[in-house]
Amino acid sequence: MTKIQTWNKAQAIIKELELTEEDEKIAIEAFGLLLAPKKGGGTRPEPKEHNGEKYYYCRYTTLYFPTSEMVYQNEESRTDLKDKGYSNIGISLWNKGQKYLKDLQKRSIEIAYGKDQKDATRAKGLALHQEAVALIEANSMNDGKYLLENFLTEEQADILEGLDLPE
After folding, report:
1. In whole angstroms, what is the distance from residue 90 CA to residue 154 CA?
2. pLDDT (mean) for 62-73
3. Domains held by the chain: number
């Protein structure tokens, strides 16, 4: 059963209980916190027209890219222009950022709590851990500017430079 089906079934059961209108509202709110499908990341900005071509918003870089640079589920969705909301460069940067964060967390634990570590080494491990926590709290891996500044390769920079992107 999908999340939507589960939520619809739960609402039907609540209605069958013949509660007062107020109690029904309270029950739906309470169960909604647990069962209601989560809303997506909101709506994306509309495509922009630039030099006679449509450009689509990439949620990972916060830039607009032509159709050829966007990621699609399959050829049919490419034909219908139903991209997944991110560019090839954007998904690459996001993946690099996630890998960096995962490695940082793993390394920090190994350094801080490894066998026979000296105090200076432990301090370094704890500092790495604090960096990881700060990146998570700031949601840095979903910040286009941070990803572009820290994970863009020269090859990707050349690709970006070669594209005539709208502002």
Report:
1. 14
2. 83
3. 2
